[in-house]
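Worked Example 4.2. Read the sequence first, then its structure tokens.
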Amino acid sequence: MDIIVNNLFFADRNSNARIQLFFALCFPFFTLFALGIDSVPFAANYFDGRQITNVLAIIYFSFFFWVSGSYLRKLMFVMVFLSYIGEVLFCTLLGMYNYRTTVIPLYVPFGHAIVYASGYVFAHTKWALKNDTILRKYFAVGFAILFLSVGILLKDIFSLIFGVLFFWVLKRKKWQNLYYFIALCVIFIELGGTYFQCWKWVPKTFGVIPAANPPMGAVFFYAGGDVLLSKIVDYWKSKKIVSQY
């Protein structure tokens, strides 16, 4: 682990950089562990582990938040509330997916913030910044192939439509690799969550658009949410600066 951390060392080299990267690198392991406890098989064979996963997510978020810089802290803080609003909209009101219970799990908004923070840290590593140009090309080709593959092979029209919108957002944001790194974390947690049956996407979104479980095009909603998130935090930051004068 030390070798990986040294090679990917956070670009700004602040005192907590190694710890931030450690949390980002542990993200996939924590995700599988936490979602496994909230899974249908775990509940069927042992007990309902939802509350344990809630506590684990809050603890992980708290430590990640604590070691982060002021800007990332603001992003994570706002993300918790913004993601909950998104859950109410996309899950409760629009019915695009359903959790294994009728209640939105407490760990979900904190999980979204952890996903975002992990992608943010990866995107700001020395390695990612050094290889920014070549990564953009590989990411663009890779995600295009991904959206087309699931669209053709799995009849996932949802991903074809929202995959195009994902690239539209990226174009407006000057193809920042930040969105790709976050998207990779999103795909991982979506695959993990649906595998453990913590949630399930409906076969036809809005009763019309065929979607896989999970649809890869879901990354668009995270990208779109990030645009709003950045605007909120930047406004918050500008108001704070103005208030100091």
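Now turn to a second chain, presented in exactly the same format:
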Amino acid sequence: MTGRAPEEPMFGPDSVTRQVIREPVSALGGFRALFLQALHPRAVAAVAQNSSYREQPLQRLAAVRRYLQATTEGTVAQAQAAGQRLRAVHAALTAYDPATGEEYRVDSPDLLRWVHVAEVESYVDAAMRTGLRLSPRQIDEYYAEQTARAALVGLDPATVPDSAQRVAEYYERVRADLHVTKEAIGTAVHLVLPRVQLPQGLLAPVWAPVALAAYAMLPVWARALYGLSGPPATDEVLDRALRLAGTLVGGAPAGAWDALARFLLEPS
């Protein structure tokens, strides 16, 4: 994305990134990413020690949604401004490792890279499983495009996986650092059963199934770390249900799901 003028879109209308984000059910990827990110002990500890996500889960999701929109659908200037604000917040935060007591910066490259890769891989996984057709070349193009978003949070794009193969290799390298902590379990529980007030609380009966579907979308190795992999047919059955959901949701009027998201996450 280098070379674009400030007033130009961060990602053009024909970019693979815009195709992925336009998929309504790709929002499941956001939930999937949170389950996945929580498997990194330092990443989840940093959130637990510096965030009010348990008391205000919808506010956190709303903030994530605003950032995602600014950095994918906004102009270069808007994306850079959003990145600067996020970097300023991260720069002021530290956390401590519950296992060792060691203090560390929230904006350390290793943590930022983990959060980035888990997020972008989760979104494209959700979009494709709910019906978006992408060729291997387009998937690689998507990951290459996303290195521009990684740069917004302060990462060197050259250190960020920019293809499906490199993402898979990255996961293989980092898996030794991943395990379930009490903070990860707490995050998972609050994703499935968040503390929300009316009117959003009316959706509690459907919130849990949606969150559980996002959990079921995790890679087998990630579900195994949580201790609940599911039966061998889990992925096949889930994929059929997600394709059906993608078809049904795709038939809604343009803008309907965005309006619903605003109502749920940012009520007036």
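Notes for the reader: Strands lie at 94-96, 103-105. DSSP finds 13 helices and two strands in the chain.
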